[in-house]
Amino acid sequence: MTRQTRRLPGRRPTLDDVARGSGVSKSTVSRVINGEDKVRAEVVERVREVIAELGYVPNSAARQLVTRRNNAIAVVASQPQNRLFIDPFFDLHLRGIRKELVAHGAQPVLLFLEEPEEYPRVGDFLGGGHVDGALLFSLRADDPLPGMIERIGLPAVFGGRPLLRAGEPVRDCVYVDADNRGGAREAVRHLVSLGRERIATITGPCDQEASAVDRLDGYRDILLDASPDLVEHSDYTRHGGAHAMTALLDRRPDLDAVFVASDLMASGALEVLREQGRRVPDDVAVVGFDDLAPLAEHTDPPLTTVHQDIEGMGRLMARLLFSRTEGPVGGATGGAAQAGSLSSVVTPTRLVVRKSA
Predict the structure, then answer these.
(1) Alpha helices in the chain (DSSP H)
(2) What is the average pLDDT across 311-338?
């Protein structure tokens, strides 16, 4: 016999209506709505059919009282807002995060920390019960945010291995990072295989980013006796890469290759080499890091670079966070096994050879 449940005219359907139409108790309906697993499959199907037929929408405030969840995740970056939104690396990360949040019915809340006086405000917000967890980016070595998160007790996942001051570890630190050191080794090994002998490097901000430290360490793993004057520090920006390339050429005009620790910096370095009449790769071979499309494909010449799955890392960060706030999540692709383990994840990198080296 087919059940004749219809939308109720003139008023919003209630939990009582769903229970009556399903022939079960209100508590059973609540368990179905909240995704609890102690309800028989046929009952779950029947309740969901009635919800669809009635057009029932759960009261979000009441549901929050039951589940103690806000369905909101803070995405916190210790960088100026305008810089992050012109950085394609952060854009790809955020795209991956958003896809995973949408799949879990959650929304991102973007928080930017540009000045030291903003930390108390952000700390109050994170500790005020507004979000279920936090995803943290671009933290400096002396950043107080990891300690604040630990004191609040808010579940968190870091984008990249945190570079913290000695003596101030975060005991429950979970992060997603690429194999920065291994990728750098592969990049420099490639330059050596081309017969290059005076290989310079432009690093990221080693006082702020663990990725910059790891990529410099990878360079030194291959070139144990590299001269210090072949190393120039910069800031992961196009302008910074151009400035660093100019400094290297002034100091070491005989260099014949350069490993640049980001594609943005590499694009600036290529501009300077072209302006100074250096042919790439004939005179100077160039390798970047990130494989930011379409940037790396459309530099002149197209950039040989180390690929990392930036969008996938963003999705994995969100999955790890949900596994901390909800328990293990099944049925998604890429990183599901690691996400359920509540351990940090280091994703592989690979060299993409184009025409700059």
Answers:
(1) 15-22, 26-33, 41-54, 60-67, 81-85, 88-103, 119-126, 145-152, 180-193, 210-222, 238-251, 263-275, 295-298, 310-325, 336-340
(2) 66
